[in-house]
Amino acid sequence: MRIVLVGQGPFGEKTLDALIQKGQDIVGVFCPQDKRGEAMKTLAQNSGTAHFQPNHMKDAEVRQAYLQLRPDLVILAFVTDIIPDSLLDIPSIGTICYHPSLLPKHRGASGINWAIIQGDTRTGLTILWVDKGIDTGPILLQKEVEIAPDDTTGSIYFNKLFPMGIDAIVEAVDLIKSGKAPKIPQDHALATYEPPCDNRHAGIDWSKPAREVYNLVRGCDPQPGAYSTLSGEKVKFYQAQLIDAGQKSLPGQVAGIDAGEVVVALNGGALKIGKMKAEKGAKMNAAEFAAELDLKVGMRFGT
């Protein structure tokens, strides 16, 4: 079975390596031209696999390369570019894609972020057959994981869905080769779709309940970073914990600075913050940040 792999970053690299180690027939690799594609490019070169680094997957040269490679299966492993419909009809078996949510819930580019922001207690991954919609194709397989109370987008991805996703792609290829890969239609009536989670969604509203604020902070950690303002400047928060309020302070008000952490009052609790970052600065220990910006107990974010 002739396979083309499209991907980027560490996930694309590790997926390519896993498929090579399994002896799969990888006939072509597509990855970005910038640093996101360097590791995949190097691995493809070292393994003697044809590699391509187009500006965009919609470029005419990509279609021509697909036609020359004659893939039976195309695998999308962490792809942020748009795959044009004209490429979907070329592989004889089809195209499959890794998606970090339990479809049909959380379609879109930020499935992990929104699962945490919306307070889900479980999430997972889906390997789906790609059709012409956005994450709408039939399901090949799914894997489920717990979202622990203090999980962040980073911990869910790197500790759970990254390694599980590579194994799931390898499993999916085996199922396809054996002729046992299902195509389970999604229940579109249950679908949710959210936009990419970026700075437009990461601003903290301190008037909201403590749990909602905490979910936003951990759902935006490490990217895009939940933020508030202090003296008109953006400040981002990371490595936070939700704790009981030890004293009566206004939501958004600094209630404590000690032991390397900053405590900010919430509506029904408090946020213990491990790292902070100014808009133009580096991420640093919260107490060091407080000292550098002369942050004092009683000062209030968002004012």
Task: Describe the overall structure.
The protein is an alpha/beta fold. The protein has 2 domains: 2-190, Rossmann fold (3-Layer(aba) Sandwich), CATH 3.40.50; 210-292, Methionyl-tRNA Fmet Formyltransferase, Chain A, domain 2. Helix content is 29%, strand content 26%. It has 8 helices and 13 strands. The protein has helices at 9-21, 38-47, 60-69, 85-88, 111-117, 153-178, 210-219, 286-292, and strands spanning 2-7, 25-30, 51-52, 73-77, 94-99, 122-129, 139-146, 226-230, 233-243, 254-258, 261-266, 269-278, 284-285. The chain has a 7-stranded mixed β-sheet, with helices on both faces. β1, α1 and β2 form a beta-alpha-beta unit. The mean pLDDT is 96.
Task: Present the secondary structure layout.
Blueprint: E1 2-7, H1 9-21, E2 25-30, H2 38-47, E3 51-52, H3 60-69, E4 73-77, H4 85-88, E5 94-99, H5 111-117, E6 122-129, E7 139-146, H6 153-178, H7 210-219, E8 226-230, E9 233-243, E10 254-258, E11 261-266, E12 269-278, E13 284-285, H8 286-292
Which features would summarize this protein structure in a list?
303 residues; alpha/beta; Rossmann fold; Methionyl-tRNA Fmet Formyltransferase, Chain A, domain 2; 2 domains; seven-stranded mixed beta sheet; 13 strands
Order of helices and strands: EHEHEHEHEHEEHHEEEEEEH
Main sheet? 7 strands, mixed
Number of H- or I-type helical stretches: 8
Content-based structural category: alpha/beta
Q: In percent terms, what proportion of residues is strand?
A: 25-35%
The average pLDDT is 96
> What CATH architecture of the largest domain do you see?
3-Layer(aba) Sandwich
* SS elements, strand count: 13
Distance between the termini: 60 Å
Give the helix level as a range of percent: 25-40%
CATH 4th-level superfamily of the largest domain: Formyl transferase, N-terminal domain
Instruction: Provide the CATH topology of the largest domain.
Output: Rossmann fold
Shape: elongated
Give the strand order, joined by hyphens, for the main sheet. 3-2-1-4-5-6-7
Which class of the largest domain in CATH terms?
Answer: Alpha Beta
Structural domain tally: 2
- Provide the gyration radius in Å: 22 Å
Low-confidence stretches: none
